[in-house]
């Protein structure tokens, strides 16, 4: 169940990051509300996951996969470029997350 909670937390981590961009420095009301709500829900589900997972594993997966998701959706929504360097970095993060998943009970 912890990995399901962590997956939900990751979705809200990505939503939080994308909302932060849309909020334009918290000068736009509804994107700002969306950002704060996403952050709260994401941290809540992360805390549920960390009841079972080691904090080092849970937090690393949360931030790593969240970062990859943010860059992918940033490219789709905000037309940000995905360079070869970014792509290589994503692959390294995904490999690290997979290894953490395989080696943590």
UniProtKB/TrEMBL annotation:
<keyword id="KW-0812">Transmembrane</keyword>
<feature type="transmembrane region" description="Helical">
    <location>
        <begin position="87"/>
        <end position="104"/>
    </location>
</feature>
<keyword id="KW-1133">Transmembrane helix</keyword>
<keyword id="KW-0472">Membrane</keyword>
<dbReference type="InterPro" id="IPR045324">
    <property type="entry name" value="Small_multidrug_res"/>
</dbReference>
<protein>
    <submittedName>
        <fullName>Multidrug efflux SMR transporter</fullName>
    </submittedName>
</protein>
<feature type="transmembrane region" description="Helical">
    <location>
        <begin position="30"/>
        <end position="50"/>
    </location>
</feature>
<dbReference type="Pfam" id="PF00893">
    <property type="entry name" value="Multi_Drug_Res"/>
</dbReference>
<keyword id="KW-0813">Transport</keyword>
<dbReference type="InterPro" id="IPR037185">
    <property type="entry name" value="EmrE-like"/>
</dbReference>
<comment type="similarity">
    <text>Belongs to the drug/metabolite transporter (DMT) superfamily. Small multidrug resistance (SMR) (TC 2.A.7.1) family.</text>
</comment>
<dbReference type="InterPro" id="IPR000390">
    <property type="entry name" value="Small_drug/metabolite_transptr"/>
</dbReference>
<feature type="transmembrane region" description="Helical">
    <location>
        <begin position="56"/>
        <end position="78"/>
    </location>
</feature>
<feature type="transmembrane region" description="Helical">
    <location>
        <begin position="6"/>
        <end position="23"/>
    </location>
</feature>
<keyword id="KW-1003">Cell membrane</keyword>
């Amino acid at each position: 169940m912890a990995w399901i909670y962590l997956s939900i937390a990751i979705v809200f981590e990505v939503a939080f990051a994308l909302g932060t961009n849309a909020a334009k420095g918290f000068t736009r009301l509804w994107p700002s509300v969306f950002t704060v709500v996403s952050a709260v829900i994401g941290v809540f589900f992360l805390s549920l996951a960390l009841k079972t997972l080691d904090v080092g594993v849970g937090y690393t997966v949360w931030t790593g996969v969240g970062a990859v998701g943010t860059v992918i959706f940033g490219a789709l929504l905000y037309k940000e470029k995905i360079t070869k360097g970014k792509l290589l970095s994503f692959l390294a993060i995904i490999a690290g997350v997979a290894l953490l998943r395989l080696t943590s009970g």
